[in-house]
Amino acid sequence: MTERYVSHQQPGQPTERDDGALTDRRRRLAWLARAAGVGLSGVSIAFVLLVVVVVGSGGELTLITRPLPMQFALALPYLIGILTLGTVAGAVPAWRYRYWSLPARIHHTLLALLGLGFSWQLATLGFLAV
């Protein structure tokens, strides 16, 4: 006689295997959200420093003549915009699924708000065409 496994789970409940896949997906989303936040911070600081150094060494005409370092700096606002969207998109499920502790979620949300503000400033100043 063959024994069959009979599940005592309610229909619609995730199985152990489904729950593990869901946990892995949440870990990946948490990692991507944190990576977007770290990338946003790093690229934003690099943009500001690079613009200050290039304009400081070349004068105001670097905005018109656009040497190679300035061309590189002017490409960074688009990356900042993309990373801002990733950071904001990562903040929503971080609150919903409680990826991190409360201070970490507040920190990530503040980082997303600062990214939105910085992107808005970049668009206002003409660095980011929207």
From TrEMBL:
What keywords tag this UniProt record? Membrane, Transmembrane, Transmembrane helix
Residue ranges of the TM segments: 31-55, 75-97, 109-129
Q: Where is this region: Disordered?
A: 1-20
Full protein name: Uncharacterized protein
Native source species:
Halorubrum trueperi
**What lineage is this protein's organism placed in?**
Archaea, Methanobacteriati, Methanobacteriota, Stenosarchaea group, Halobacteria
